[in-house]
Structure formats: structure tokens, C-alpha cells
Amino acid sequence: MPIHEFRCNSCDHVFEVLVMQKDEIANIKCTRCQSPEVQKLMSAPNMAVSDGPPGRVTSPSGMPKVQHHSCGSNSCSAIELPGHSKG
């Protein structure tokens, strides 16, 4: 069951909603001001990678690193992917 991230166009609040059925997205309202004027945001995926025996999940040193920082009044994330350089 996917968790979707939204931003309210009225109050700029960012929030997450567990969406059970795809048609529920059309009825999402801001959790702060109840405005229906929201936009769906693209979120970074969360995944685990196994580098060892089956059933054991590890975090190898080559895994992407996620950095959290403040962007104005909201929290933002940046992800560093292997093989990608800012240029």
C-alpha cells in the first residue's frame, strides 16, 4: 500500500497519506487547512538491498546516501546515486 506525499497549494504544508485505492487520490485534502488544492509530489523510494546470505539485509558502503536539510519552511531530501556527479 503506497504512501503518497502531497503539498498544499493553499498553505504550502507537505504531508503524507496512505492511499488504499487509486481513486482516493482525487479526494485528498490538506491535513492542516483541509484545502482540496493539493499536488502530488515525487518521493525518493525506500529500499533494502541484500549483500549477504538470503534473508539478511545489509547496507553496503556503495549504497546511495540520503541527506536531509531545510528548504525554507519545509524539509527537503537529496539523494546521492553511485555513478552520478553534479556538473
Outline of the structure:
The protein is an all-beta fold.
List strands and helices in order, with pairings.
Blueprint: E1 3-8, E2 14-18, E3 38-41, E4 65-71, E5 74-80
Antiparallel strand pairs: 1-2, 1-3, 4-5
Describe this structure in words.
- This protein has 87 residues and is mostly beta strands.
- The chain has one domain.
- It is built from no helices and five strands.
- The protein has a three-stranded antiparallel sheet, with no helix packed on it. A two-stranded antiparallel ribbon has the order 4-5.
- The protein is globular and about 30 Å long.
Provide tags for this entry.
87 residues, mainly beta, two-stranded antiparallel ribbon, 5 strands
Total E-strand runs = 5
The helical percent reads under 10%
Shape: globular
The description of the largest β-sheet is: 3 strands, antiparallel
Q: Could you say which structural class the secondary elements and strand pairing correspond to?
A: mainly beta
Oligomer: single chain
